[in-house]
Amino acid sequence: MSGSNALNAHVKQAPQRLAVVWFTGSTALVEGQGLCYDWDRGTAGEADGRRFTYVELPSTTNAQHFAGVTARDYAACSGGQMIEIYLPGSICNVHAKANCTIGVGLLTFDVTSSYQGFFRYSGLAGEGSCIPLQTVDRSTTAGKVFAKLCEGQPSGGVEVVPIVNNGSIGTLMIGGTTLVVGATIATGNCTYTLADGVAQGLRKKFGVITTEIATNNLVITVTNGCSHQLDDAALATVTFVGASTNVGMEITLEWGGAWVVVSKTKTDPVIA
Questions:
Q1: What residues form DSSP beta bridges with 240?
Q2: 23 close to 56: Cβ distance less than 8 angstroms
Q3: Confidence of residue 188 (pLDDT cuts 50, 70, 90)
Q4: How do the domains of the chain map onto residue ranges?
Q5: Distance CA 264, CA 31 (A)
Q6: Rounded CA gap, 83 and 89, in Å?
Q7: Region for residue 102 given its phi and psi (left: phi exceeds 0; alpha: psi -120 to 50; beta: otherwise)
C-alpha cells in the first residue's frame, strides 16, 4: 500500500503509508522511532535523489525534514541498512516516553541526545507530531503507543536544553520547539539571541518544562520581531521571568520577514 491510504485488508488493520528507505546509521532502531531525511546529502550544487530516500537519526540540522517512523525493530548494522518506515498520515505505533490518553494532546519527535526519534513532549502541529490513539503510561519506561502521524507543515521537532546561569544558552534550532529545563540561576540571566528565519512561514516555539526558573530570567533577544500580526509594534525581547510561575509557559513565533507572535501563555513570558 505504499503511497496509498486504501484499506484492502481486514477492517482492524490500520490505514498506513509505507516506504522503503536507506538508513545511513549503524545503530539499532526500535519500532515507532522517528527519522528524518538526509536532505543535504552529497554535493550541494548537484541534483541527488538520495536526499529523500536516505534517512538518519533526528538532529538540530535535519529536524525540518521529518520522514516517518520505523515499521518494526531493526538490529544494529554496520554501514547502514534498508528499512521500512510509516509516512505521515499513517496510523501506527510510535516510540513514546510519555503518559498518553487516547485523543488527547500532541507528541512531537525529539532531537535530544539519547532520545533521538522518541516522542516525549508536545511541540508544534504538523509533520513529526502525532495524536495518541491509545491510553497507556509510558512515562517511566519508553514503549509503543498507537497513534496518528500528523501531516502538514513541518513541526521541526523538539530539543530539550538545560538553562545556563549568567550566560548564553548556546546554539539552538532556528525552527521547531526548544524546551528549557529550569533551575535557580542566582548569578545572572540566561540569554539567547534568535536569528532571522530562513524560510517564509518557519515556526519557532519556546517553553519551560520540569522545573521553575528562579531568581533571574531567561531573556530571548529577537533580532527582527513584531509583537502582533495586525500592527507593526516591535518585538525586541521575550522574557521568562524568574519571579513568576513559568513551568508550562510558552510562546510561538512565525517568520514572515520578522518573527511575529502567533500565540503565548497569558502571564508569562513577557514580551517587549
A1: 218
A2: yes
A3: very high
A4: 18-149, 163-271
A5: 34
A6: 18
A7: beta
Q: Which amino acid is at 174?
A: I
Q: Note whether 227 and 234 are within 8 A (CB).
A: yes
Strand partners, 205: 177, 252
Q: What percent of the chain is predicted at pLDDT more than 90?
A: 91
**Ramachandran angles phi, psi of 214, nearest 5°:** -125, 155
Residues listed for the chain: 272
Number of CB atoms found within 10 A of residue 57's CB: 18
Residue-by-residue DSSP string for the chain: -TT-----S-TTSPP--EEEEEE---S-B-TT-EEEE-TT-S-TTS--GGGGTEEE---TTTTTSEEEEESS-B---TT-EEEEEEPTT-EEEEEE-SEE-TT-S-EEEB-STT-TT-EEE---SSBTEEEE-S-EE-SSS-EEEEEEEP-SSB---EEEEE--TTEE-----SSEEEEEEP-B--SS-EEEEEPPPSSTT-EEEEEEESS--BSS-EEEEESSEES-TTS--B--EEEE-TTS--TT-EEEEEESSSEEEEEE-SSSSEE-
Whole-prediction pTM:
0.94
Residue of 19, 131, 21, 115 lying closest to 59 (CA atoms): 115
pLDDT in tens, 23-41: 999 999 999 999 999 999 9
